[in-house]
Amino acid sequence: MKKGRYVVLASGRGSNFQAILDRTRDGYIPAECAALITDNPGAKAIFRAQDAGVPVDVVDYRAYPDKTRYEKALITAISRYSPDLVILAGYMRLLGDRIVDEFSGRMMNIHPSLLPAFPGLHAQRQALEYGTKVAGCTVHFVTKDMDAGPVIIQRTVPVLDDDDEDSLAERILTEEHQAFPESVRLFFEGRIRLSGRKVRILS
Ligand code: GRF
To answer: Which residues, judged by CB distance below 6 Å to any ligand atom, belong to the binding site of ligand 1?
Structure first.
């Protein structure tokens, strides 16, 4: 059987990208990483792709006159690799309706909070400022509303009295590196059923 393919979009450090790459290489994810696409020519994720022999496309926002044309170029870049799944792993740009429609039900994102709590930027800071006792991460399908798509997996961590943003972010990141590869694996095993905004995981 032909192996499934995914493309990763990342803008920066790329530690989630690395976790997914590692779990692909060891066979846990039964698919192939077709490419890394980044909007940031300085992204550390680029070195990770190069180390793994994964093709890199830079689609730099600044090279396009407006968002519509940028997104058209992004759709073209992604489609060139015919991916079954598009993975947003720290991709820092809001995607428009067209691209979200194009990859509906096959685009995943990770967010460092237990959604629907604390969407948007600085989720860990928001959790600390609110004073929650539990925090975590969410992998979800991408829809037109930011950080509001159907939830695939969530993992929790405690918030400790002496946490600052960095210590909490680090504890959550460890869980992200489990939750994201697991979600990708479930997708390629065909074990995710999406019905409205609910995700059921087949055993
Ligand atoms: C992660 O915390 C992720 O949840 C958020 O952006 C961060 C990306 O980190 N969307 P990295 O680039 O994967 O290391």
So the answer is: 10, 12-16, 89-90, 110-112, 173, 176
